[in-house]
């Protein structure tokens, strides 16, 4: 099957130019100067008209929690609904988090997550591993997983008693990562101090969702980020700070990068567009915006956009971890600390970042870079993913920069009963989505199939010095 995408503007991390794209089977065969394409039209089985549109590499969301167990329930999207919603929004690969249970083995955990995805995923996927129990067995298994294409391990300085690891445990895992070429991903918030603030707030009757934000102050994200950076420095491991939300944390990352260290960070759309004001919405509405770290006061937004421009923030992922408002978020009525942490967003990342282009925050090339190219290079998928070049997988989005649409639970494809962006108009939207040459979305119709997605074994981070 040969597909020709004609008349569009191909945008990659290096810039934009008028070019036609020839797909042969699952991969990109050629980028053509439109002047010379004419002769090839007859050779293609199908031609897609991309006039007036961008042709971009499919988005890569490197932070999702599909079918994730949480307190006797699961995040609302599984690998079928979650990957379908991702594709609707222009994301064609994701890296999800397998979660080691306390006392469980990494090897068995990985098998469990393979089983969750198989037969369900409609786009390609890889896994990171959450290490919640550092012991000699776990440390050995980290090397085994690297050999199976799971090259990144997430740890938590937050959530004492659940995922929390001590500085000593973190150091040990980092040392192991340093020797195997793996990356340590860090949830950097000082969970010990936060738990004190949470207990004090609840004891004084402060139970509303807004207090979720006030008991997790940005200083405690900044402190933990700086501590993680120094532990990584001592161990020699590369460090990737997940879901960075606060300017204090960004300052620590910027300093480390100015020192030339292998320190990287991502942020998420909720930290660029939502704020403490949303958490403080009347009644229990604020529960919709509860995630950790929390959405911050609005004055953090400009710092994060600056970080994205200067590459102190390298990637925008979603931390998609949806819980329905009814019955799931409602578990925290009368006690904000019991609200499941997480927000839906897998479908809207590409559009919300394109809105950043419209608003003058990002260049077109940078939009593609934080969306696709850097995620691929950071997590060992490039150049198979993350660009449009001969030999790369034909994961391609035809994107209409003029399309205006309104984000809403009425129209989204995520299996969750609310939108964190209800009623927000964005400019730009997906026109067609290809995954390995197959059409998943076109003409506002779904053509994909559950189970066609493949596991992506990954190599090491491609930015290390
Ligand atoms: Zn997460």
Task: Annotate the secondary structure layout.
Layout: E1 2-6, E2 9-12, E3 15-18, E4 20-24, E5 27-32, H1 34-37, E6 46-49, E7 54-57, E8 59-64, E9 69-70, E10 73-74, H2 79-88, E11 91-99, H3 106-117, E12 124-130, H4 136-147, E13 152-156, H5 167-180, E14 183-187, H6 191-203, H7 210-214, H8 218-235, E15 239-241, H9 247-258, E16 263-267, H10 269-273, H11 276-279, H12 301-310, E17 315-316, H13 349-358, H14 364-378, E18 396-406, E19 425-435, E20 438-442, E21 445-446
Quote the beta fraction.
Answer: 15-25%
Uncertain ranges? none
Order the strands across the largest sheet as they lie in space. 8-11-12-13-14-15-16-17
Number of helical elements? 14
How far from one another are the termini? Answer: 41 Å
Name the structural class: alpha/beta
Which ligands, by name, code or SMILES, are bound? zinc ion
Mean pLDDT: 97
Largest sheet: 8 strands, parallel
Number of strands: 21
Percent helix: 25-40%
Q: What is the overall silhouette?
A: globular
Radius of gyration: 21 Å
Question: How would you describe this protein?
Answer:
The chain is of the alpha/beta class. The protein is 31% helix and 23% strand. The chain is built from 14 helices and 21 strands. The strands form four sheets. It has an eight-stranded parallel beta sheet. A seven-stranded mixed beta sheet has the order 3-2-7-18-19-20-21. Strand 12 (124-130), helix 4 (136-147) and strand 13 (152-156) form a beta-alpha-beta unit. The protein starts with a strand and ends in a 19-residue tail after the last strand. The relative contact order is 0.18.
């Amino acid at each position: 099957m040969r597909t020709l995408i004609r008349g569009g503007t191909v945008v990659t991390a290096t810039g934009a130019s008028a070019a036609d794209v020839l797909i042969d089977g699952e991969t990109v065969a050629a980028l053509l100067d439109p002047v010379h394409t004419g002769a090839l039209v007859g050779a293609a089985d199908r031609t897609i008209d991309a006039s007036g549109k961008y042709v971009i590499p499919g988005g890569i969301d490197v932070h999702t929690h599909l079918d994730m167990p949480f307190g006797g329930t699961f995040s609302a999207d599984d690998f079928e609904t979650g990957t379908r919603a991702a594709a609707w929004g222009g994301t064609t690969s994701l890296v999800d988090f397998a979660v080691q249970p306390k006392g469980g083995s990494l090897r068995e955990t990985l098998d469990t997550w393979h089983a969750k995805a198989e037969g369900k995923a409609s786009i390609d996927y890889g896994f990171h591993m959450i290490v919640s129990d550092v012991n000699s067995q776990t440390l050995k298994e980290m090397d085994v997983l690297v050999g199976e294409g799971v090259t990144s391990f997430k740890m938590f300085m937050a959530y004492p008693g659940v995922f929390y690891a001590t500085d000593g445990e973190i150091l040990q895992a980092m040392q192991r990562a340093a020797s195997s070429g793996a990356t340590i991903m860090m949830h950097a918030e000082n969970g010990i101090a936060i738990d004190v603030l949470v207990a004090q707030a609840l004891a004084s009757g402060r139970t509303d969702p807004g207090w979720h934000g006030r008991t997790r102050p940005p200083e405690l994200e900044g402190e933990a980020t700086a501590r993680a950076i120094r532990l990584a420095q001592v161990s020699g491991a590369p460090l990737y700070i997940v879901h960075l939300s606060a300017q204090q944390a960004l300052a620590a990352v910027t300093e480390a990068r100015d020192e030339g260290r292998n320190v990287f960070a991502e942020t998420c759309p909720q930290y660029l567009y939502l704020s403490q004001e949303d958490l403080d919405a009347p009644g229990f509405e604020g529960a919709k915006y509860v995630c950790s770290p929390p959405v911050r006061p609005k004055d953090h937004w400009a710092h994060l956009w600056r970080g994205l421009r200067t590459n102190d923030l390298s990637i925008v992922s979603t931390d998609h971890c949806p819980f329905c408002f009814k019955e799931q978020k409602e578990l925290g009525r009368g006690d904000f600390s019991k609200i499941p942490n997480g927000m839906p967003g897998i479908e809207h990342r590409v559009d919300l970042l394109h809105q950043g282009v419209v608003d003058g925050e990002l260049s077109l090339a940078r939009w593609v870079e934080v969306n696709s190219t850097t995620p691929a290079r950071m997590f060992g998928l490039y150049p198979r993913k993350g660009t449009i070049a001969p030999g790369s997988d034909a994961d391609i989005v035809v994107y209409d920069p003029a399309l205006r649409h309104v984000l809403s639970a009425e129209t989204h494809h995520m299996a969750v009963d609310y939108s964190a962006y209800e009623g927000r108009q964005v400019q730009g939207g997906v026109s067609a989505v290809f995954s390995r040459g197959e059409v998943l979305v076109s003409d506002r119709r779904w053509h994909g199939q559950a189970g066609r997605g493949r596991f992506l074994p990954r190599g090491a981070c491609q930015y290390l010095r």
